[in-house]
Amino acid sequence: MSTSASFGANAVIVVFGASGDLAKKKTFPALFGLYREGQLPSTVKIIGYARSKIEDADFKKRISDNFKLRDEEKDKPKIEEFLKLCSYHQGAYDTAEGYEELEKIIGEHEKKVGTESPERLFYLALPPSVFTEVAKNLKKYVYAENGTTRIIVEKPFGHDLDSSRELQKDLAPLFTEEELYRIDHYLGKEMVKNLLVLRFGNELLSGTWNKNHIKSIQISFKEAFGTEGRGGYFDSIGIVRDVMQNHLLQVLTLLTMERPVSFDPEAIRDEKVKVLKAFSPLNTDDILIGQYTKSEDGKKPGYLDDETVKGDSKCVTYAALGLGINNERWEGVPIVMRAGKALDESKVEIRIQFKPVAKGMFEEIQRNELVIRVQPNEAIYMKINSKIPGISTETSLTDLDLTYKSRYSKDFWIPEAYEALIRDCFLGNHSNFVRDDELDVSWKLFTPLLNFIESDKAPVPEGYAYGSKGPKGLRAFLNKHGYVFADEGTYQWPLTTPNVKGKM
Q1: What is the number of structural domains in the chain?
Q2: pTM for the full model?
Q3: 108, 179, 244, 493: least CB-packed within 10 angstroms?
C-alpha cells in the first residue's frame, strides 16, 4: 500500500453509523466546520452509511440542523455547497451486499475524477460491538488496494484490559497501526493541544516543571448534569471508565511526559508510553467515590431515581483518585484526578500548585498556581503574589491572565475538538490519537481499580446532592494530597474574567 502525507482533492470520506447521534451531533458538524473554513477540498465526496432507511433529503436535514454557523449570511451558502458533497447509503453491517454497493459508488466517483491512487477515510461512529464486523467487511470489499486507507475508531476501546486486547487482536491483522486512528476527542481540545508548547516552549515553566518546584498536580472534570434518563447505559460504565481512564489520563500524560525530540507523532507517543509505564499501581485505599442524590431543593432527581437504573446500583458517578509517578522528575509529587456528574458547574481544568517560597521576609504568603481551563472559556492564568497598590505594604494573590475570549478576536477560528482531529487524520498526523501500546498500558493501570470498584469489596459510594461540589470528604482528600486552598479574602480576580468563580 502506498501512503501519502495528506489526502488530496478527490478523497472519499465514509461515515459509518450515519443515522446515529454521534454522527449527527459531532462527525458531520465537524466535517462541515472544516469545509466552512476551507480545510476540506470542494471536490471531496462524503458518504453516510447506516442500516436505517432514510431519504437523502431527510438525511441532509438531520445533519444540517446541527451545523454551527460563525456568520449566518456567509455560512448559509456554504451549507448548500457542503450538502451537495454528501449522500446517504443504506446497508447492513454484517453482509456483503451493502459494502459491494458502497465500493461501486466510490469506484464510480474515483473513475469520474480520474483518481489513480484512491484516498479513503472511514469513520466508525459505531458501538464497539460492531467494530470488528465492519472492519472485516471494509478490508474485504472497500479497501483502497492501490492507495491510502485510514480508519477512525471511536472510543470506548474495550471495557477493560482483556476486552481491549481482544479488540486489538481483531483489528491488527486487518489494518496497520499507521492506518488506524483511535480517536479520543479530548486530545483535539485547544488547551490540551497547547500543553506541549506551553511546557516545552517556555523556559519559565520548563525549568520548574519537576518535583523540586511543584507541590501537587490536579486535573478535574465537572459536569452540571446527571445521566438524564441514560442511566441504564452509564450504569455499566461509571465515571472512572467514562472519562478518567481515557480523557483525563491522556491529559495527564501530556502534562508529565519528557520532552519529545521533535513534533513527530511517534516521538510524542513514545514519551507518553514511557511516562505511563512509570505510574505507580493505583491504590484502592486512595480513592474517594460518590453517587449523586436528589438536589437539596428536591427539584433534581438522584441517580437511583432514574428509571433506567437498578434500584440497588452502586455505580460511581464521582471519583477522586490519588496517583504517583516513579521517575526522577515526579517522584513524591501527589497527583489527583477527579471527575463527577451532577455537580455545581460544568468545567474541566488543570491545576499545578507550586511549593511555597522560603520563610524569612514573608511570614505568610500564598503559593503560586498555574491554572489551565480546558473548558468552558479557554484560559491560562498564573496566580502570583503582588503588593497591593498604594501606600499598603500588604501582598495580594492575583493573576497573570490569558483568557482566550479577551485575547483573541471572535473572528479567530479555534477548531472544535472533532474538527481538529478529523483534520489531523485527513493529513495523516497521528500525534493526537491513541497508539496500541499506549492503550494497553492505560488499561493495565486502571483495570485492577475498576475490578475493585465494581466488586463487593468496594465501599458504598458516598452520597452527594445534585448541584453540590461533590462528596463532603473532597476538601480533606485534596489537602491530604498536598493541595493548599488559598485564603479567598486575599485573592483578587482579574477584571477580564469577572464571571469566573475562583472556588474549588
Answers
A1: 2
A2: 0.90
A3: 108
